[in-house]
TrEMBL record:
Its main location: membrane. It comes from the Bacteria. This is Cell division protein FtsB. It is a single-pass type II membrane protein. The lineage of its organism: Bacteria, Pseudomonadati, Pseudomonadota, Betaproteobacteria, Burkholderiales. InterPro entries: Cell_div_FtsB, FtsL/DivIC. Belongs to the FtsB family. Signal peptide: none annotated. Essential cell division protein. May link together the upstream cell division proteins, which are predominantly cytoplasmic, with the downstream cell division proteins, which are predominantly periplasmic. The gene is ftsB. Residues 1-5 are cytoplasmic. GO terms for cellular component: cell division site; cell septum; plasma membrane. Part of a complex composed of FtsB, FtsL and FtsQ. It comes from Extensimonas vulgaris. Residues 24-92 are periplasmic.
Length: 92
């Protein structure tokens, strides 16, 4: 009786392992989904890093260059120096 039970137990273990491989937490589909999420997150991180680098360069320019401050004030706040005439040309 013990000799007939061993193959069934081994078969049951094999079925359980295959079920875990195809349906469980570490299944092929789950791993593929996690890889896609990782790729999407890496792309988002790269975009955020580019934005951070651009902003860091802008902060550095604002700290060091008065010309950049003047350009920002002119374009965003409409600054005009005394005795200066402001002429705006409309784009076509």
């Amino acid at each position: 009786m013990g000799g007939r039970l061993v193959p069934f137990v081994l078969l049951a273990l094999l079925v359980a392992l295959h079920a875990q491989l195809w349906l469980g937490r570490g299944s092929v589909a789950h791993v593929r989904s996690l890889q896609q999420q990782l790729a999407a997150q890496k792309a988002a991180n790269a975009q955020a890093q580019q934005a951070n680098d651009r902003l860091a360069a802008e902060v550095n320019d604002l700290k060091e260059g008065l010309e950049m401050v003047e350009d920002k004030a002119r374009s965003e706040l409409g600054m005009v120096k005394p005795n200066e005439i402001y002429v705006q040309i409309a784009p076509r």
